[in-house]
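Supplementary Methods, section 5.1.

A reviewer requested that the exact input to the structure prediction be made available. We therefore reproduce it here, unchanged from the version used in the analyses.
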Amino acid sequence: MHLLSPAWASAPKIDTLIEGIEYQPNDQTLLYGLPDASILEENGSLVLFQGNSLVGRFYWTPEKYLWEASIKYGVDYDLLLCLAQKESSFNSLAIGDNGLAKGLFQIHTDKHSINDECAFDIKCSADWTAQKIKEGKGYLWTTYKSCLIKRNQNR
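The structure derived from this sequence is encoded token-by-token as follows.
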């Protein structure tokens, strides 16, 4: 199960309906109380319709993609979470280091084989970061060592 983060909602009824609800694919929980409602999964988001009218679009939280990357590459989830928090405060559109560091993990696209689109995309940048850590390149992030220390203290 993955928590949803509402990105937009047109009515308080929808906010109330969505907030704190966990969603599983094909789960009808979200549709409760909305006659003729349907959900379409599209580009990392859920699009909620009532009949033919768009009701709202809801995005997965970044944690979902960090979790998937940690499993895919065998990298500690808490380490990825710490890096995202320290590098960008979980802002996938963050730009730092005079425009050179981009995205959730503040990737220097000018120095690495990654384009801006991937750096700003949560899933793509989480995969790229987890892969680099798996390759022993955690030193690419100045916050990596402090995240390792924090992770080891919590164990």
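The radius of gyration is 18 Å. These observations are discussed further in the main text.
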